[in-house]
């Protein structure tokens, strides 16, 4: 047992493995769509596990959603239920690009509509951050709820994007490689943010906003950054999701979707990137295996959330981080 | 000698209650300036007015020639005013080093974009922040505890860390709200020495609220006495010691 | 003109129901400073309890009303006991998340058991009256009358009884209250019982007025009432009533002028605007923070 722990510790501190794994993973996900035997092999393995490539792509998307919501709900200690609203903005904005504006766009340029989706969502995140200056806690939660409902009912009333029936005929551009790529980008950017003065400012706001202010922390700047970055990646995830599902309706991005992301965050652990990944993976797979239960699944998922809050509110990782996700300077300091 | 901080005719009302009424005094650069007065005299309210947590109902506050009243607390802090809190407000779930780094961060120069993409300037700044903050903790004798959670420190060390955190802002004026609260007389004597050292080492003007008379009398160059939100006396420790009104309002009740 | 007068009657009916639900949010917020996100679903459960009781036993209206209020009330108190009480000293966010989770559990449980919308049986034969060109039914009169009766009763309870006094004391300062010999847990349980009971009554009245009920009612109608509570000033009892009637009026007038799909958009925009410009509502007061 001790030997295993030592091995795991060494593994965690090794700074070469992670980049190697990422490169190999990305090449693999790219290769799968190019070589038929590889794809068939993967699919037969997945079938054995009662999974499919759709679920694997969904894991990537959920990692993005979970990590980005963790920034606001975990690291900053606020409670936003509006994440699905940012998602839907990203989904709709990107789909307008691929369906209406540039229908003949080459598939390789898919990053462009995704970024458009992210930027539109980030703008909404910026506006929400302005509202967060004066209120926090319950009241901010209500504001994010109102935001979610307004986005949903606004989309239902815009004929250009299909009203309540939503956008149909969205091309299936989200591949395993894109999902993998964006998940890695999200974790990398969030890590950079978290281990910067802005990340420390966000943590200081969570701990004690008044003390943070008195220590010269630019609270408004930090809140704007947290909300915008969080919303940007929710928008990215929404764009990927729409191009995986090949349609987007206002109802796809409701309060239940927000709750699912909340479950992932609080399951994996608040204030932890490793926790976000664990939460997203566990939740997505579990949720897929529970599909045969039908609507009962939607009873079980929020029930898990309640039980988590009662018995393990910080989740699996809760403010702990794998050394892999620390920048070199922080990791080195902890050794000495 | 010039006035670093001037409080001019400042009042603050909460509903019908006058917490501070036409308060007027100034703090000379380089001094240790004490504020004393019975409980509820408005001392902490005065600190909250100076640091921008409350806005004055009337009057103005001038620091190094600039108006402070109406500015946000973070702007005031960045102008060079550090503070501690009566009921210690550390970032409890963060490490000792992170507590200090957060205050030091105001001196780092890189943009959000440089942070998100971890560009070279950010790395240099961050390395510098770790080095400088660690050095500050060493100087305060907290170096060995860098990676402990601030909330896990014993009470006395938490007070010390709060001062270190305020010093990391590189302030010209340091506000201390009852630094000796909860300390015994031996510890208070050590704190007096420690504050003398902080004052000369970091070239900072002190403004402190305190109940321990030994500390105030031993450390301060000048003392302002508040009662019911009003200034009732001001002078050197000797003058205050002999002031009848002060004895009536405060010392008499406290020491007999 | 007559059209708008007719709409005004509809607005009062809807507003009365909103106000009843909003009271539950405000009562709980008053004593625990916590948003009970599950309350909207308790309202929905109230409608289903009414359906079950009415289809099993042909009881008079008042008896059914009392049974529905009691059963929904006990469900509300049970949720508090099981899910909220253990979290009372935990960070506030934990309680909000739990409440949200409980609400979704209830909603999806009901929708799993009853996937399709159900018609609500009429409990008595409704007669219409004509007042100078305006038509008003006995059902509308009953709904408005029962709502107002319950609200007046609640106001009396809170202002004049020792239990109500204890509730107000807790909302003023929950830490010193146990020192004064007030049984904190008991008062909180009763608060949930009353709040959920009123929500259940509202569910029953809503089911009679718009006689098709479904699990989604909790979010569609219950959360709307939450807007009413916030508009009036959450934690304020009279504010909840004022907010309920304002929201009823706004919704009915919106539908009179715009397509009905704009109803939610207008209602939630109203919430956002109120939160921005008057964050503590029309009759609420700002909490004070000690530094």
Your description of this structure?
The complex is a heterotrimer of chains A (336), B (256) and C (291). Chain A has 336 residues and is mainly alpha-helical. Chain A contains 15 helices and no strands. Chain B has 2 domains: 1-80 and 171-256, P-loop containing nucleotide triphosphate hydrolases (Rossmann fold, 3-Layer(aba) Sandwich), CATH 3.40.50.300; 90-170, no CATH class. In chain B, 41% of the residues lie in helices and 24% in strands. In chain B, the strands form 2 sheets. In chain B, strands 6-7-8-3-9-10 form a 6-stranded mixed β-sheet, sandwiched between helices. Chain B has a 4-stranded antiparallel β-sheet with strand order 2-1-4-5, with helices on one face. By secondary structure, chain C is mainly alpha-helical. A two-stranded antiparallel ribbon of chain C has the order 1-4. Helices cover 71% and strands 4% of the residues of chain C. Chain C has a single domain (2-123, 130-277), classed as Orthogonal Bundle (ABC transporter involved in vitamin B12 uptake, BtuC), CATH 1.10.3470. Chain A binds chain C through residues 73, 77-79, 81, 131, 134-135, 137-139, 141-143, 145-147, 149-150, 152-154, 156-157, 163-164, 210, 255-256, 259, 262, 266, 294-296, 298-299, 301-303, 305-306, 309-310, 313, and chain C through 33-35, 83, 86-87, 90-98, 100-105, 108-109, 111-112, 115, 219, 223, 226, 230, 259, 261-262, 264-265, 268-269, 271-272, 275-276, 279, 291.
Question: Which terms summarize this structure?
Answer:
heterotrimer, A: mainly alpha, 15 helices, 0% strand, C: 291 residues, mainly alpha, two-stranded antiparallel sheet, 4 strands, globular
Compact summary:
By secondary structure, chain B is of the alpha/beta class. Chain B contains 10 helices and 10 strands.
Itemize the secondary structure elements and their pairings:
The complex is a heterotrimer of chains A (336), B (256) and C (291).
Chain A: H1 2-13, H2 17-34, H3 36-48, H4 53-75, H5 83-101, H6 111-131, H7 138-156, H8 176-194, H9 197-207, H10 209-214, H11 219-245, H12 255-268, H13 273-289, H14 297-311, H15 328-335
Chain B: E1 3-14, E2 17-28, E3 32-36, H1 43-50, E4 58-63, E5 66-67, H2 73-78, E6 81-83, H3 96-104, H4 112-116, H5 120-139, H6 155-168, E7 173-177, H7 185-201, E8 205-209, H8 213-219, E9 222-227, E10 230-235, H9 237-242, H10 244-255
Parallel strand pairs in B: 3-8, 3-9, 6-7, 7-8
Antiparallel strand pairs in B: 1-2, 1-4, 4-5, 9-10
Helix pairs in contact in B: 3-5, 3-6, 7-8
Chain C: H1 2-32, H2 39-56, H3 61-84, H4 92-113, E1 118-119, E2 128-131, E3 134-137, H5 138-160, H6 162-172, H7 184-209, E4 212-213, H8 217-232, H9 237-257, H10 263-277
Helix pairs in contact in C: 1-5, 1-6, 1-7, 1-8, 1-9, 2-3, 2-4, 2-7, 2-8, 3-7, 5-6, 5-7, 6-7, 8-9, 8-10, 9-10
């Amino acid at each position: 047992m001790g030997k295993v722990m030592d091995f795991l510790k060494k593994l965690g501190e090794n700074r070469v493995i992670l980049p190697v794994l990422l490169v190999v993973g990305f090449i693999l996900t790219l290769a799968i769509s190019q070589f038929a035997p590889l794809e068939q092999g993967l699919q037969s393995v997945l079938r054995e596990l009662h999974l499919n490539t759709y679920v694997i792509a969904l894991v990537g998307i959920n990692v993005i959603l979970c990590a980005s919501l963790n920034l606001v709900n975990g690291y900053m200690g606020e409670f936003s239920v509006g994440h699905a609203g940012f998602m839907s903005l990203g989904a709709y904005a990107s789909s307008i690009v691929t369906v209406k504006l540039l229908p003949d766009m080459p598939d390789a340029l898919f990053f462009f509509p995704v970024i458009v989706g992210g930027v539109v969502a980030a703008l909404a995140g910026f506006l929400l951050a302005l509202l967060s200056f004066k209120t926090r806690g319950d009241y901010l939660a209500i504001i994010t709820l109102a935001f979610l409902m307004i986005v949903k009912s606004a989309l239902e009333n815009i004929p250009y994007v299909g009203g309540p029936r939503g956008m149909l005929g969205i091309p299936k551009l989200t591949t395993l490689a894109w999902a993998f790529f964006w998940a890695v980008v999200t974790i990398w950017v969030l890590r950079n943010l978290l281990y910067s003065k802005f990340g420390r400012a966000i943590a200081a706001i969570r701990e004690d906003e008044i003390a943070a202010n008195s220590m010269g922390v630019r609270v408004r700047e930090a809140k704007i950054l947290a909300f915008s970055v969080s919303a940007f990646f929710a928008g990215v995830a929404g764009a990927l999701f729409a191009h995986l599902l090949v349609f987007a309706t206002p109802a796809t991005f409701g309060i239940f979707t927000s709750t699912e992301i909340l479950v992932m965050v609080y399951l994996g652990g608040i204030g932890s990137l490793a926790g976000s990944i664990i939460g997203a993976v566990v939740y997505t797979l579990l949720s897929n295996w529970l599909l045969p239960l039908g609507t009962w699944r939607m009873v079980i998922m929020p029930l898990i959330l309640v039980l988590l809050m009662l018995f393990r509110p910080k989740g699996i990782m809760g403010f702990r981080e794998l050394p892999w996700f620390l920048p070199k300077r922080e990791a080195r300091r902890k050794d000495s | 000698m010039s006035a670093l901080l001037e409080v001019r005719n400042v009042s603050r009302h909460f509903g019908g209650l006058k917490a501070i009424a036409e308060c007027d005094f100034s703090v000379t650069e380089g001094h240790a300036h004490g504020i004393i007065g019975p409980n509820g005299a408005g001392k902490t309210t005065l600190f909250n007015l100076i640091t921008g947590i409350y806005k004055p109902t009337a009057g103005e506050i001038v620091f190094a020639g600039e108006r402070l009243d109406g500015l946000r607390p973070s702007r005031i802090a960045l102008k060079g005013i550090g503070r501690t809190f009566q009921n210690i407000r550390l970032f409890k779930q963060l490490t000792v080093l992170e507590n200090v780094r957060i205050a030091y961060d105001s001196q780092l120069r890189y943009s959000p974009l440089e942070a998100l993409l971890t560009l070279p300037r950010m790395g240099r700044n961050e390395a510098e922040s770790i080095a400088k903050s660690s050095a500050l903790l060493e100087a305060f004798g907290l170096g060995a505890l860098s990676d402990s959670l601030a909330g896990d420190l014993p009470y006395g060390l938490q007070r010390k860390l709060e001062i270190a955190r305020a010093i990391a802002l590189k302030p010209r004026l340091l506000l201390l709200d009852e630094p000796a609260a909860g300390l015994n007389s031996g510890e208070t004597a050590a704190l007096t020495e420690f504050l003398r050292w902080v004052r000369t080492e970091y070239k900072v003007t002190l403004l402190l609220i305190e109940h321990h008379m030994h500390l105030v009398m031993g450390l301060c160059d000048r003392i302002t006495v508040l009662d019911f939100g009003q200034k009732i006396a001001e002078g050197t420790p000797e003058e205050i010691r002999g002031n009848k009104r002060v004895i009536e309002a405060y010392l008499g009740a406290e020491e007999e | 003109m007559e059209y708008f007068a007719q709409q005004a009657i509809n607005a009062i009916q809807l507003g009365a129901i909103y106000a009843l639900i909003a009271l539950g949010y405000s009562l709980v917020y008053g004593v625990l400073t916590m948003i009970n996100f599950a309350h909207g679903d308790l309202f929905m459960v109230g409608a289903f309890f009414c359906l079950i009781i009415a289809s099993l036993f042909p009881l008079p209206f008042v008896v059914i009303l009392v049974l529905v209020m009691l059963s929904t009330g006990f469900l509300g108190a049970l949720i508090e006991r099981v899910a909220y009480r253990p979290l009372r000293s935990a960070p506030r966010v934990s309680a909000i998340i739990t409440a949200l989770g409980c609400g979704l559990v209830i909603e999806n449980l009901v929708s799993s058991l009853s996937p399709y919308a159900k018609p609500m049986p009429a409990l008595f034969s409704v007669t219409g009256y004509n007042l100078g060109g305006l038509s008003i039914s006995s059902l509308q009169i009953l709904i408005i009358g029962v709502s107002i009766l319950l609200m007046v009763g609640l106001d009396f309870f809170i202002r004049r009884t020792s239990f109500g006094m204890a509730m107000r004391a807790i909302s003023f300062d929950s830490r010193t209250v146990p020192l004064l010999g007030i049984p904190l847990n008991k008062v909180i349980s009763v608060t949930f019982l009353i709040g959920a009971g009123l929500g259940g009554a509202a569910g029953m009245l809503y089911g009679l007025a718009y006689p098709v009920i479904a699990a989604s009612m909790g979010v569609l109608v219950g959360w709307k009432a939450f807007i009413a509570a916030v508009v009036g000033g959450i934690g304020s009892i009279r504010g909840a009533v004022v907010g309920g009637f304002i929201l009823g009026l706004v919704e009915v007038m919106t539908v009179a002028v715009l397509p009905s799909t704009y109803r939610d958009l207008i209602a939630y925009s109203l919430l956002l605007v109120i939160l921005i410009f008057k964050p503590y509502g029309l009759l609420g007061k700002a909490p004070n923070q000690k530094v």
